[in-house]
Amino acid sequence: MPTAKPDVYEAAMRRALLLAETVRGTTSPNPAVGAVILDHEGTLVGEGATQPAGGAHAEVVALQKAGERARGGTAIVTLEPCSHTGRTGPCAEALLEAGIAQVYYAVNDPNPEAGGGAEVLEEAGVRTIGGLLESEAEHGALRPWLHAIRAGRPFITWKYAATLDGRVAAEDYTSRWITSAAARADVHLLRAQVDAILVGSGTVLTDDPQLTVRDGDGNLADRQPLRVVLDRRHRTPTDARVLDNAAETLVLDTAVVRFALKALFDRGVRHVLLEGGPTVAGAFLEAQSVDEVVAYLAPKLLGAGPHAVGHAGISSIDEAVTLEIDDVSRLGEDVKIVGRPIWPEGE
To answer: For the chain, which residues score pLDDT lower than 70?
Structure first.
């Protein structure tokens, strides 16, 4: 049995959590998982993260790097090793074949098709301990995937940029640029972490966005999220930039949130960035289908023009959606606020 001290395993899990962050947004429909392999003395001999769908899972990548040094050692994984055969074999079996003596993992796998790996390992005589840094893992790279599997719909991050009086454009609908270059660059980092970017046809008609991920020089990133347009009335022009060949685009003939989210979930989308205008934002809020809010607020006042959110089915202050603030930061001249909606009781 491995002889490392307990704090070594916690340090290894923190490393695994960092590894998972490096592949955030690239693994769906699989989770972004990190793994570390320690030899029997507690020395790190292998590490890895989940590869894009169809590629090796984190445990397999780490085991390949560790080789024979994994035998008799410890695997540290951010998610319970899977026990099913999909595009790749079960990670629990890979750990057994490598001769791993014990496994620490952070979060139980909620996927009924893949869960149960811990039981497989235990039955084979491998000491298996769950819950190591569970809270950190739940709020890290795994968060969107865990929510999607538990809720049966993608995790929704609503992003908007507005003035301090809540306007997303001037009265004449001009909107470039409300926020600073630093804030706009941060949006591209956010886009790079999601599976899909969603807007309504109104945004396409008003702003003609491309909805792509670009670097600081304006070049397209190698990986582009799916672009999604909700267009019940078939208003998207054939020459709209969202229909160019820079990325794949899905136009959905619906304005019903739950139908759109089911279609995306069935395509393997686990994290959606909502960038739509006031109407779409209001619809998602009314459907209680916003899981995270990222607001970029510019130190400007317009006094008129469209608001960030339209009708959301809220008629009194008692029905207001409160945000639990996770982070507040400065980006150039602007303020970035990240929060989680707390829905009114009884809803």
So the answer is: 1, 3-5, 85-88, 176, 345-347
pTM of the model: 0.93
Torsion over CA: 212, 213, 217, 222 (sign): negative
- Cα 316–Cα 321–Cα 322 angle in degrees, nearest 5: 120
CA neighbor of 171 nearest in space, from 300, 303, 310, 305: 305
Closest CA to 275 of 177, 202, 216, 178: 202
Residue 208, SS3?
coil
Question: Could you tell me the end-to-end alpha-carbon distance of the chain, in angstroms, rounded to an integer?
Answer: 50
Q: How far is CA 34 from the centre of its chain?
A: 15
Percent of the chain with pLDDT over 90: 83
Given a contact cutoff of 8 angstroms between Cβ atoms, the answer to whether 45 and 69 are in contact is yes
Contact 133, 270 (CB under 8 A): no
Active-site amino acid positions: 59
Pairwise CA distance, residues 174 & 311, whole Å: 22
Domains and CATH numbers, the chain: 6-146 (3.40.140.10), 153-342 (3.40.430.10)
184's tokens: 């706009």
In the Cβ-directed half-sphere of 159, how many Cα atoms lie within 13 Å? 24
| CA distances for 229 relative to 87, 197, 241, 246, 262, angstroms | 30, 9, 12, 15, 15
Tell me which residue of 84, 66, 64 sits closest to 74, measured CA to CA. Answer: 66
